Amino acid sequence: xxxxxxxxxxxxxxEEAFLTINCTYTATGYPSLFWYVQYPGEGLQLLLKATKADxxxxxxxxxxxxRKETTSFHLEKGSVQVSDSAVYFCALIPPGSNYQLIxxxxxxxxxxx
Amino acid sequence: GAGVSQSPSNKVTEKGKxxxxxxxxxxxxxxxxxxxxxxxxxxxxxxxxxGNSAPDKSGLPSDRFSAERTGGSVSTLxxxxxxxEDSAVYLCASSPTGxxxxxxxxxTRLLVL
Lengths: 113, 113
Fold this sequence. Notes:
The complex is a heterodimer of chains A (113) and B (113). Chain A is built from no helices and 12 strands. With 113 residues, chain A is mostly beta strands. In chain B, β7 (65-69) and β8 (75-79) form a beta hairpin.
């Protein structure tokens, strides 16, 4: 079945470091891909999305590019801040569906000043 | 505008009791979803509503779980005869017609003693 695999955390970085959180997926066809973020004590927020191959989603300095050839949707940010500390979830909605989000396990990101 | 709201924010109950969790979606959103977030299982899809009907109930873990939606708006998730393994954060999301983007509420944290 369809699935999402994320790199295990926690990921610990210093402020202003470059961030990559890997996400790969298994799905037939072209799923829609999402990154959600969960800040401490808060609910899930949509960070960015991409709905077709080679699309780049971006928001708040974060970017992810839909790579069909490698079935990946890695999250990147050029310079992280302490306020980026959160849990990041990669997810997909299978093609032909419009509802069920299939989630990765989440990656906890810790940014140290 | 107002986001998805859920109540209560926290619920502590005794094993064997019934609980009701409420979700108020974003006004005008036709689709509504329930997910469960627990330590051992990550994020799991429970049920999806389009309007008042639930085309997909496949994620409900047992017949102790039920959900309804009335007036195309508010939804209630009911858990009967709660068990300790039901302890989790129950998340509600909604989305407008024609989009796959789901907007999440803050969740209800359920603890079954």
